[in-house]
Amino acid sequence: MRIYSKLVLIVVLVLFIYFLVYFTDNLSTKNENKQKMSEMSINIAVVVCGPERVDESLVMMKSALLFSTKNTSINFIIVTEPKFREIFEQKMENFVDFPKFSYEIFHLKFPNDDQETWLKLFKPCASQRLFLPSLLPHHDSILYVDCDVIFLSSPDLVYQHFKSFDESQMSAMASESENFNTGWYTRFARHPFYQPFGVNSGVMLMNLTRMRNVNFEDKIQPIYQKYRNKLAWGDQDILNIYFHEHPHEMHLMKCEYNYRPDHCMYTSQCDISSGVKVLHGNRGYFHKEGKQRIFREFYKAIEECEGT
After folding, report:
1. 37: which residues sit within 8 A by CB, 6+ positions away?
2. Do residues 125 and 119 lie in contact, with contact meaning Cβ atoms separated by under 8 Å?
3. Nearest-angstrom CA–CA distance, 58 and 92
4. 117-153 per-position pLDDT tens digit
5. Confidence tier at 33 by pLDDT (50, 70, 90)
6. Is 124 within 8 Å of 147 (Cβ atoms)?
7. Which of 20, 28, 29, 105 has its CA 20 to 30 A from that of 257?
8. Residue 307 falls in which region: left (phi positive, over 0), alpha (psi -120 to 50) or beta
9. Model-level pTM greater than 0.70?
10. Where does the pLDDT of residue 207 fall: very low under 50, low under 70, confident under 90, or very high at 90 and above?
């Protein structure tokens, strides 16, 4: 009887250990899977021409790293002139204390038959963003930003909009304006634009795979030829015309993801009750004194911030 009791006890202990190990392993696996699911790898692309733009782009990248979450890894894609490659390689050394980031540098590349035209359209090399699908064939999706952009929240908040795309959408931007009476496109445009207010391309999610699949780059060249004398904002106007013709391919983001001086120049035109996620100091507002000095102060705060 005593031997039988000991056997029962041993069996119970073995079963207890087995289930303890099983549930511990299972819980560990679930936690690992949960961590993997929460980790996000994002690509942020920027096009840089001119020494002043080098400095702005570095501040933009610093802001992205400062506000990124611990589960976010960022790959910066820098498209620039050959003479700035060495400068970027040196400057990126300043970011070594930030975990989970990498970078790639590419030289400008425009269609061979009309390089000078595209290079000088609107601002120097700004139109390069139109040709990122072919320049970056190894990438599926990117977040393109202008040099004069800083993040005030984790970039993955913008990147998560990709999850909201339907099967036909290949890009996401915010409206150029929120008001018919003050919007530029609604008052001055001499060409079609994305309804109802046009879009601003300073912050632009791009599903490059889908753009390649629809031959996006081939389609924009006839647009340029047709409207070349009516393009006030260069490549941004071309994008507006394209998405006017293909509205189903556009996903519209809220203005808090591309907050610009125009949103607060006359009256408040953007609901920022949940906070500004991305600040866009276009037209030099990161360097101006005056009524909208707040843009300059945010920029300087990021520029002067040290460490992680």
Report:
1. none
2. yes
3. 8
4. 787 776 778 899 999 999 999 999 999 999 999 999 9
5. very low
6. no
7. 105
8. left
9. yes
10. very high
Instruction: Enter the tokens of residue 47.
Output: 């096009």
8 A C-beta contact, residue 111 and residue 120: no
Residue 26: pLDDT band (50, 70, 90) is low
70 — pLDDT class (breaks 50, 70, 90): confident
Structure tokens at 31: 């936690």
Residue type, 153: S
Q: 110: Cβ–Cβ under 8 A, 6 or more apart, which residues?
A: 118, 119, 127, 128, 131
Report the percentage of the chain scoring pLDDT > 90: 69
CA pair distance 62, 308, nearest whole angstrom: 9
Token pair in block for residue 111: 């269609």
Mean pLDDT for the stretch of residues 2-23: 47
**Coil, strand or helix at 175:** strand
Nearest C-alpha neighbor of 60 from the set 307, 308, 283, 298: 298
How far, in Å, are 16, 74, 118, 194, 249 from residue 241 at the CA level? 68, 31, 17, 7, 12
The single residue listed with the structure tokens 């996401």 is: 172
* Both structure tokens of 203: 């912050």
Residues paired with 280 in a beta bridge: 149
